[in-house]
Amino acid sequence: MTVRKGRWADVILVVLFTAVLTGLTGCAEFQVRIDPAPIPTGDAATVLATLPVKGRAPLTGYDREQFGQSWRDIDRNGCDQRNDVLARDLAEVEYRPGTDSCVVLAGMFADPYSGRTIPFRRGRDTSDDVQIDHVVALADAWRTGAQQLDVDVRERFANDPLNLMATQGSVNQQKGDGDAATWLPPARGFRCDYVARQVAVKAKYRLWVTDAERDAIAGVLSGCPGQELPPDSGIAGA
């Protein structure tokens, strides 16, 4: 086929555009707007079966800042998410005066991850005794689809109460960025609730699971047939 001289510019532009688009879709900087979805109905095992199964994407480009502001007041109640989770998960809560019952000073914490009960008191040397865990770790999320989300959606993910649980600091450090295939809570009685929450978070934010992760979650859920998903936090738009 003979291409007329006047058509060569159009052909070159199409080739260049295709090459650029291909390059963008292959890198972490190419992001799409995928809003969180309502958590599906059904038990955790049923929803697990609907999650895509893929290998881990590279951690290339990952940084905590990719998930926006830490402990943002995502639900706009005047309190940051760390204090909201402490207030939700602790008992006998004491607040700092003058903060409209927002800043948690002290409380008793029954840690579901370890089964231990420990006191919490805010302070330079004591605040880290109780930490806030991302149930689906940020690095794990990055490797299973979050790098394709825009930063606003990732910020919602990192601050969504559905994905946040208070736990003993040493236990949180042991978990690191592990998924269910590499880490489960020491308290076996909480494992069904824990993996059900992971399934809910991944379904809401349209993330995938690896083969090993799916098998590990399915193995836990086989011991608690009909395990329900936790209720959604209601966090959708920001």
From TrEMBL:
The record's annotation in InterPro entries points to: GmrSD_C (IPR011089)
Q: Which domain of life is it from?
A: Bacteria
Query: What is an example of a Pfam family matching this protein?
Result: GmrSD_C
- GmrSD restriction endonucleases C-terminal domain ranges (all copies): 80-219
Mind telling me what this protein is named?
Uncharacterized protein DUF1524
Name its species.
Pseudonocardia hierapolitana
> What high-level taxonomic lineage is stated for the organism?
Bacteria, Bacillati, Actinomycetota, Actinomycetes, Pseudonocardiales
